[in-house]
Amino acid sequence: xxxxxxxxxxxxxxxxxxxxxxxxxxxxxxxxxxxxxxxxxxxxxxxxxxxxxxxxxxxxxxxxxxxxxxxxxxxxxxxxxxxxxxxxxxxxxxxxxxxxxxxxxxxxxxxxxxxxxxxxxxxxxxxxxxxxxxxxxxxxxxxxxxxxxxxxxxxxxxxxxxxxxxxxxxxxxxxxxxxxxxxxxxxxxxxxxxxxxxxxxxxxxxxxxxxxxxxxxxxxxxxxxxxxxxxxxxxxxxxxxxxxxxxxxxxxxxxxxxxxxxxxxxxxxxxxxxxxxxxxxxxxxxxxxxxxxxxxxxxxxxxxxxxxxxxxxxxxxxxxxxxxxxxxxxxxxxxxxxxxxxxxxxxxxxxxxxxxx
Length: 357
Hints:
Blueprint: H1 2-18, H2 25-28, E1 48-50, E2 66-68, E3 81-87, E4 90-95, H3 96-102, E5 104-109, E6 112-119, E7 124-129, E8 131-132, E9 135-136, E10 139-146, E11 149-154, E12 160-162, E13 167-170, E14 180-181, E15 184-187, H4 188-194, E16 199-201, E17 242-248, E18 251-256, H5 257-260, E19 264-270, E20 273-279, E21 284-288, E22 298-300, E23 309-311, E24 316-317, E25 323-325, E26 334-335, E27 338-342, H6 343-349, E28 354-355
Parallel strand pairs: 4-16, 18-28
Antiparallel strand pairs: 1-10, 2-16, 3-4, 3-15, 5-6, 6-7, 7-14, 8-9, 10-11, 12-13, 17-18, 17-27, 19-20, 20-21, 21-26, 22-23, 23-24, 24-25
């Protein structure tokens, strides 16, 4: 299996290094069901970059170990970012300072096969269901990048996927989209206050890494520091500003933290759908309202517990859109397809993205 993966990725590297043109029209028009020839790409081959480490050179975490919040190491300070997930009563946190070194955790959360993915270069934390094409799989780091973003591969078909593009870009599953699992990016201080029963991923990964030391220097704050050039540059927002991005196929609308302020709700219309955003300086979530929920008025109401906002009927909702008390108890709002990202990556993947002002 490892030999097969290495051979396929080696071929990919050759294509990247040797190609000087975009994918040809003939290749683009080939059927996606013809065995997954690596000549078929949905992104221009000339713009796929070799990040250096090679296939699995950045190792995914496939046997994650967790401890309770009270056992979290002191290095996990309240201001550090984590990726939070809640499926039923199973609540877990994946610290950025671990995923900066591994990028993918293959996990099993309350009966759901989950891949928690973080691309440190684009600041994108996204959860995928690991049932792909009807089969259970795990995801690994290919070592390849597009617009500085992670291109995972699935270990069942060896197809390559775009994390930020939410799409399989080459292989037998070309054109398929992953089923998303809702995750929340926020600070550890906020997450453990909302969910004191949370478990948290430990550094017992089986690998020797300098956890707690960010591996990319001043990358997070240096707006002029990118590893590779972009296909499209959009300078309307500083490159490394974190924005909440709602995705609709190949288009996007972004909301700046500054537009939310220190605790606010916004109702907006995007692609004919009514959207509710709730957030503050640390956290933004968004939901698609239906005929019933659009009649409600919502108010930010985070006070150091699970409740994050409430409606005019007295129902209290958490960050996952679950009604946790009040007359609407057990109702649930539909999450948007959305994630936090560095602005430059949205501008590159979704040209002419709308910006909420």
